[in-house]
Specification:
Blueprint lengths: L2 H4 L14 H7 L6 H13 L2 H9 L6 H11 L3 E5 L13 E4 L5 H12 L6 E5 L12 E4 L5 H19 L4 E3 L7 E2 L5 E2 L5 H10 L3 E6 L5 H9 L1 H11 L7 E6 L5 H4 L5 H13 L6
Parallel strand pairs: 1-9, 2-5, 2-8, 3-4, 3-5
Antiparallel strand pairs: 6-7, 8-9
């Protein structure tokens, strides 16, 4: 069964969970053996998947920005928007947002709430695993940079979908780093290198680009785990959303970068550095 077939169909009642034990065994065959199942049971508990499923079940009857609003309310998460006027003057038709990626899935949820409230046709390009959040199926475009043939096909479908979405006059959000911010060799938490494949795609779109910056980062504990092993850090990521209870985030929105401004950069690397600089400089705008 293809991964995309594993999700819901129009004739199937929406599930009230994100991931089950069986889903993970399907995704990762190594967990299907007796010893693998035992290990998965431990990891399933450590990653807090049951807590995620429980949180999801309370809002799974909603969609898009309404779903995110319900999740944020349950966690008492709020955010301040700097330069909010940009949202009141969004470009007509297709445009792109580029953002740093400090928190993980929470970044995507907030973007859908922030932009989706103004443009319900706004989608975010995400790792394919997030498409298991059925309430946001219409807001996600799935990709997965991997050598796995099935998942590579998902990436190709995602890229084609993004091109079609933009050409039909709809907006898309990107996290060009492709993964959550991490601690560097100087023990500073920063965004990863922005991926050339994403930058090339944005360059091809020829639409306005709006930089969006999320202030802050995940817990120090989460980031220090990455020094031990990135897989342990990844295991911790789902639980990070719960230590954001009662937190108010600061989000800065930059002025749209016109197509004319973008066309000054013929070199892909320079264009990528320009977009990243325009995003990261918003950190000062508090």
């Amino acid at each position: 069964m293809a991964i995309e077939d594993k999700k819901y169909t129009e004739n199937k009642k929406r599930k009230k969970y994100v991931l089950t034990f069986e889903d993970l065994q399907y995704i990762i065959p190594a967990f299907r053996s007796k010893s693998g199942a035992l290990l998965l049971k431990i990891l399933y508990s450590l990653a807090g998947i049951n807590k995620i499923n429980d949180l999801y079940s309370h809002s799974c009857d909603k969609n898009g920005a309404e779903f995110v609003n319900s999740i944020l309310k349950e966690l008492s998460i709020t955010y301040n928007i700097h330069h909010k006027e940009v949202l009141d003057q969004l470009p007509q038709g297709g445009f792109v947002t580029v953002s740093n990626h400090p928190y993980g899935a929470l970044d995507g949820l907030i973007l859908i709430h922030l932009l989706g409230s103004h443009r319900p046709d706004y989608k975010v390009m995400v790792n394919w695993i997030l498409t298991y959040i059925e309430a946001l199926a219409d807001n996600f475009i799935a990709v997965e940079p991997t050598s796995n043939e099935t998942r590579r096909q998902i990436s190709m479908v995602g890229i084609r979908e993004s091109l079609s979405h933009i050409r039909n006059g709809h907006p898309i959000g990107f996290f060009p780093a492709g993964a959550v911010s991490k601690i560097n060799s100087r023990l500073r938490i920063e965004d990863r290198e922005w991926q050339p494949t994403v930058i090339r795609l944005i360059q091809q779109f020829k639409v306005p680009v709006i930089p969006i910056y999320f202030q802050g980062h995940n817990s120090l504990f989460y980031n220090l785990l990455g020094i031990i092993d990135w897989r342990i850090r990844t295991l911790r990521l789902p639980l990070e959303i719960f230590n954001k209870r009662n937190v108010t985030f600061d989000i800065s929105i930059g002025e749209p970068i016109s197509v004319e401004q973008q066309q000054k950069f013929k070199d892909l690397d320079q264009f990528g550095k320009f977009l990243k600089k325009e995003t990261l400089k918003l950190k000062k705008n508090k």
